[in-house]
Design brief:
Elements lengths: L9 E5 L4 E5 L5 H12 L8 E6 L6 H16 L4 E6 L12 H16 L10 H19 L3 E3 L3 E2 L10 E8 L4 E8 L1 H12 L8 H24 L10 E4 L12 E9 L4 E8 L1
Parallel strand pairs: 2-3, 3-4
Antiparallel strand pairs: 1-2, 5-10, 6-10, 7-8, 7-9, 8-11, 10-11
């Protein structure tokens, strides 16, 4: 689901299963008139109509009356309607892409779940285990490293990530989003990369650090195949890498974070799954 900002204060966006009336920039009565004809063409077969608006958007009484009449007409014709309020971000940076798009994505996805267009998935062992199995397998095959998972725990987003190098890849589907993070202390990472590339490494250079993205991508790829066979519908994504002491990845939305430590003959490491239902 992509969110291109409308060029006008109000716009009707159609998809195969639903329509969204996007309101922003304080629309006036004339702006409502511009979309009335399109809205009148909607039928129950068009799916539900979502009205998406910022929490603090301002509308004149005349605009409110006109919009109310349009929505009442839609409802009389048997079309389900649902309001999506996009929370007003406290931090000004959250109004900038990609954070503003993510807030819209979360709100619209929840509306789709509420109207049963898509079915939510849950964060459970069926979801976590493929990442654990994929981590063990990829480290064994690619880095001749035997890894053993420890007990999963819940972790707060504001806590620093484990280690010095983290490979990250987004988890996106119609019913949830999140991230998978592969986290290494520097010495563990150097040991793994030395085994993978067949030569000793003693310091973290940018070229060596970038290898964490490839490792993360391989683990993600193996887990994705397993999860999509179960109907999760996870889409392909591009990995990225973050490094440094006490680094962290903060989310603009509330997430459930499951942390799984690993012991290995190359040293300790961890994976973390962040989930937003």
């Amino acid at each position: 689901m992509a969110f291109d900002q409308p060029e006008t204060p109000i716009q009707l966006v159609k998809s195969s299963k639903f329509c969204t009336l996007v309101l922003q920039q304080n629309p006036g009565p004339a702006d409502v008139d511009q979309v009335v004809t399109e809205i009148q063409k909607l039928t129950p077969d068009s799916g539900p109509l979502f009205i998406q608006m910022q929490h603090l958007i301002k509308m004149e009484p005349a605009t409110q009356d006109k919009l109310r009449a349009v929505i009442e007409d839609v409802q009389k014709r048997g079309i389900q309607t649902s309001l999506i309020l996009i929370p007003e971000p406290i931090n000004p940076i959250l109004t900038q892409a990609p954070f503003s798009g993510m807030r819209q994505y979360q709100a619209l996805r929840q509306a789709l779940i509420d109207t049963k267009i898509i079915q939510p998935k849950s964060l459970d062992v069926d979801f976590i285990n493929p990442f654990i199995f994929a981590t063990v397998k990829v480290l064994k095959v690619q880095a001749m490293t035997d890894a053993k998972p420890g007990a999963p725990t819940l972790r707060k987003s504001e806590e620093p990530l484990y280690g010095d190098v983290t490979g990250i890849i987004g988890l996106t589907s119609e019913s949830f989003s999140g991230q998978i993070m592969i986290q290494f202390p520097s010495q563990t990472y150097l040991n793994i990369m030395s085994k993978m590339l067949g030569e000793p490494f003693t310091e973290l250079t940018q070229d060596i650090i970038d290898g964490a993205g490839e490792l993360t991508n391989m683990i993600f790829g193996q887990a994705k195949v397993n999860l999509n066979e179960k109907g999760y519908g996870i889409k392909t994504a591009i990995p990225s890498v973050v490094s440094g002491k006490n680094h962290n990845i903060k989310s603009s939305v509330e997430t459930t974070n499951v942390f799984i430590p690993f012991s290995s003959d190359s040293g300790p490491m961890a994976i973390e799954v962040r989930w937003t239902p």
